[in-house]
Amino acid sequence: MLTTVLKLFEDGAEVGDLKIANSALKELRYAFKVFSQYRTVPKVTVFGSARTPPEHPITLQASDFGRRMVKAGWMVVTGAGSGVMGGAQEGAGGEQSFGLNIRLPFEQEANPWIAQDPKLITFKYFFTRKLFLLKESAAACFLPGGFGTFDEVFEVLTLIQTGKTSMIPVLLLDIPGGGYWKAWDAYVREEMVGRGFIVPEDVHLYRVTETVEDARREILDFYRVFHSHRFVEEELVMRLRRPLSPEALGALQREFGGILKSPVVSVSGPLPAEDDEWPELARLVLPFNRTSYGRLRQLIDFINRS
Question: In sequence order, what DSSP letters do the residues of the chain get, joined into one string?
């Protein structure tokens, strides 16, 4: 880090560039500090419009979702604004949520449920804010919104599709009878898949639902057996809450052999490179091809059903 700072000096960086680097680093440091006390608590980030009124069905849906996730033992992360964000924050309560606000010349005052809470973080830059909206979360739930919501859903899906972030459940939650995400899903399938811009399996990276209970259940089911994963050199190591049976392991190999470069290996504890992380969890060592992330999501679903 100090080397990078010295190189900025050697490069003769302009004052404006130094200000950007300095502000971004300060935001990162403070956000690391705030989240560090809650690393062991699972979190879901809720995205959506800042413009829906408090009694709007979409806002109420967000509030119900926040409330149910807290009851399930999760914390809620939002962009700290009003509308969907305020609804989710109200449902979760300030003690069980984080607000990641952005300084704007309009619209974006922190909602009253997080405004006085020490877990409110205000960012100058969208890129640092967006990093923490995803970095700390084990799930993402999108309710209807505008340009910002679309930007965020496509960014999250792109990061998962390219392996630049961990595989997490991505929920697109509408109101009962709503057509917002159905229309979006139809566009993705007809235009993106239909034109070959993404592969058909990529649509498995997200789920469309109309009910809060379905969204909650989808998130919890994702972690029924699957716990987490990381790469150790060229191998994908999956941590599981219980080992797979030999029959299930054989079925997995047959079903997903197309994305595996060699047989899957089941081990009872951490690999040496994991530094004894999560020693109580079983492991699957997968020679994953690092390209077929839609199929990898299907593989996780297979594990959770086994």
Answer: -HHHHHHHHHTT--HHHHHHHHHHHHHHHHHHHHHHTTTTS-EEEEE--S-S-TTSHHHHHHHHHHHHHHHTT-EEEE-S-STHHHHHHHHH-GGGEEEEEE--SSS-PPPTTTTTSTTEEEES-HHHHHHHHHHT-SEEEE-S-SHHHHHHHHHHHHHHHTTSS----EEEE--TT--HHHHHHHHIIIIIITTTSS-GGGGGG-EEES-HHHHHHHHHHHTSSEEEEEEETTEEEEEESSPPPHHHHHHHHHHHGGGBSS--EEESS--GGGTT-STTSEEEEE-B-SS-HHHHHHHHHHHHH-
Pick from 144, 102, 108: nearest CA to 127: 102
Tell me how far apart the alpha carbons of residues 255 and 258 are, in angstroms, rounded to a whole number.
8
Q: What is the pLDDT along the chain (306 residues), one digit of tens a residue?
A: 889 878 877 888 899 998 999 999 999 999 999 999 999 999 999 999 999 999 999 999 999 999 999 999 999 999 999 999 999 999 999 999 999 999 887 756 899 999 999 999 999 999 999 999 999 999 999 999 999 999 999 999 999 999 999 999 999 999 999 999 999 999 999 999 999 999 999 999 999 999 999 999 999 999 999 999 999 999 999 999 999 999 999 999 999 999 999 999 999 999 999 998 999 999 999 999 999 999 999 999 999 999
Closest by Cα among 79, 156, 87, 155 to 121: 79
Amino acid (1-letter code) at residue 147: F
Would you give the distance in Å from CA 207 to the centre of its chain? 13
**8 A C-beta contact, residue 122 and residue 254:** no
- Distance CA(221)–CA(304), nearest Å, equals 7
